[in-house]
Amino acid sequence: VHLVESGGGLVQPGGSLRLSCVTAGFTNSTYHMNWYRQAPGKERELVARISNTGGSMSYADSVKGRFTISRDNAKNTLYLKMNSLKPEDTAVYYCHVRFFDAWGQGTQVTVSS
What is the overall mean pLDDT for the chain? Predict the structure, then answer.
């Protein structure tokens, strides 16, 4: 099982980013997937989750209405579109497959003016 995140970077408050997570080593469409984040000095927190087919999503209250999780199983890719970014969204973002407890290496998102 292999997960590789990309798309992070430095963005101003109010800006947008789209994170991607390319997966390998398993049948993507079989498993639910998650995005987590970890800010400096804080515990890792669940940001969003999506069912295996993409038909059901849920979000942390802190990102609801601003972030959108999606997936393209044909491309073995999970996405996180982040709008109206705030400084408190600054963190390393990780994709995760609960069934395998598999994690990617993370991608840094920094929101700062």
Answer: 96
